[in-house]
Amino acid sequence: MDRTEIFARLIELIDPFNKKGITVAEATSFVDDLELDSLTVMDLVANIEDEWDINMPLNILPDLETVGQLADAVLKLKG
């Protein structure tokens, strides 16, 4: 699975949390655009970990502000 496929799947995983119905793009911010709170982010992270059978270290989460950054992290963690 390449980054394009990861990004597309992330959009699908984010959709249930996208209460504002905005178009999700590379630069979409979890806090500013999607307005996700920390509990919602943890639910999303759990879904991502299940989807790709990875463990996302909690210390990297503060650095992941956009969907594009998250796609890069998933690709890296998948190895």
Offer a concise description of the structure.
With 79 residues, the protein is mainly alpha-helical. 49% of the residues lie in helices and 0% in strands. The radius of gyration is 11 Å and the shape is globular.
Describe the structure.
The relative contact order is 0.21. The protein starts with a helix and ends with a helix. The chain is 49% helix and 0% strand. It has one domain: Non-ribosomal Peptide Synthetase Peptidyl Carrier Protein, Chain A (Orthogonal Bundle), CATH 1.10.1200.10. The protein is mainly α. The radius of gyration is 11 Å and the shape is globular. Helix 1 packs across helix 3.
Order of helices and strands: HHH
CATH superfamily: ACP-like
Low-confidence segments, ≥5 residues, pLDDT <50?
A: none
Beta percentage is under 5%
Helical coverage, percent range = 40-55%
Regarding quaternary structure, how should these chains be classified? Answer: single chain
What Rg do the Cα atoms give?
11 Å
CATH top level label: Mainly Alpha
